[in-house]
Amino acid sequence: MKNLIEFKEVAKDYQIGEVQIKALDGVDFSISEGEFVVILGASGAGKSTILNILGGMDTPTSGQVFVDGQEITKFNEKKLTEYRGEKVGFVFQFYNLIPNLNALENVEFATEVCKNHLDAKDILDKVGLTNRIQNFPSQLSGGEQQRVAIARAVAKNPLLLLCDEPTGALDYVTGKSVLKLLQDLNKETKKCVVLVTHNSAIAPMADKVIKVKSGKIESITINADKQSVEGIEW
Ligand SMILES: Nc1ncnc2c1ncn2[C@@H]1O[C@H](COP(=O)(O)OP(=O)(O)OP(=O)(O)O)[C@@H](O)[C@H]1O
């Protein structure tokens, strides 16, 4: 299958006073169209830095990143803003919904600027929130808020769905149902999902597992027989 994403020798350094932190150090990997990828590693390994660079929210110190044939590391601010707006859907640990907009308005607000967006109501149906679209975030459970956040990301009809610890604030059962939703959406829409986590137990649900350690790639594994989330226990 065609490569959708390529990281080539990507490095990210932070200078804090006298100390240089190598958040990423020569990171190479590729991701194919439609893949469900889990980026796994301990706290501080560099997972979020990879995701932020891939999402155009951060830029590397050196190296190249290609997405869909374009070198995003050559993009200026304007092109990066377009890229973030049109091509990338984000799902974060703490949902980041707008408190004074209801579920439907949260999704519509995000899709307003996207040319190829999908119908907000249809997507909220798909994530199981048909009867909750008028609710404000404070009137929704954590799991429901994360479903709204996923709907908001998916409704943009992006090229990639990037998820940073999407179940980090949820209990086991709710977290599992959110992972199942992401797995189902990946299967149905064939959109590439990249999910960052420290939970190695969920690795079997991925097509590809990229392990990160101290800013370097420790291993890249292809799961020949990936599993449905329902069949995984942790
Ligand atoms: N803005 C920053 N300034 C200085 N150091 C940073 C900055 N952002 C990240 N780092 C450092 O870079 C390294 C990688 O951080 P990163 O957030 O990517 O790790 P992570 O694997 O996502 O960790 P976690 O699971 O705890 O979120 C860490 O040592 C972190 O302290």
From TrEMBL:
A GO molecular-function descriptor: ATP binding
Signal sequence coordinates: none
Keywords, alphabetical: ATP-binding, Nucleotide-binding, Transport
The ABC transporter domain, residue ranges: 5-232
Gene3D superfamilies (UniProt xref): P-loop containing nucleotide triphosphate hydrolases
Entries under SUPFAM superfamilies matching the protein: P-loop containing nucleoside triphosphate hydrolases
A matching Pfam family: ABC_tran
CDD domains: ABC_MJ0796_LolCDE_FtsE
InterPro entries, A to Z: AAA+_ATPase, ABC_transporter-like_ATP-bd, ABC_transporter-like_CS, MacB-like_ATP-bd, P-loop_NTPase
Family recorded in the similarity comment: Belongs to the ABC transporter superfamily.
Protein's recorded name: ABC transporter ATP-binding protein
Organism: Tumebacillus lipolyticus
